[in-house]
Amino acid sequence: TLHCELFEDPIYFDDEKDGSVIGYEFNIKDSQARGFQRSYSLIIIMKDRMYLQHLWSFLSKQLAIIASNIKSEAETKFLKDMN
């Protein structure tokens, strides 16, 4: 069974070789997409794990703001395209 889950919360993962990542996934409405929806991810990659973890709260809030702005713009365009 294939599953695709979307978490509209920041996630953290790291790899000793490649660095640490904070990711933020979200959906937007898109009149040209199958199901009228597309999924996107914003990611921040950093080699310094401790620094990234220290910035977790700040960066998480900023990613949520960016995603919210993109979703708002996409909603406006979606409504315009559907009319």
Structure in words:
The chain is built from two helices and three strands. The protein is α+β, with helices and mostly antiparallel strands. A three-stranded antiparallel β-sheet has the order 1-2-3. A hairpin with a 7-residue loop joins β2 (19-29) and β3. It starts with 9 loop residues before the first strand and ends with a helix.
How does the SSE layout of this entry go?
Elements: E1 10-15, E2 19-29, E3 37-46, H1 49-54, H2 56-82
Antiparallel strand pairs: 1-2, 2-3
Care to give the gist of this entry?
The protein has helices at 49-54, 56-82; strands spanning 10-15, 19-29, 37-46.
Note the main sheet: 3 strands, antiparallel
Q: How much of the sequence is in beta strands?
A: 25-35%
The level of helicity is: 25-40%
Helix and strand composition category: alpha+beta
Number of strands: 3
* Low-pLDDT residue spans: none
Please tell me how large the radius of gyration is. Answer: 15 Å
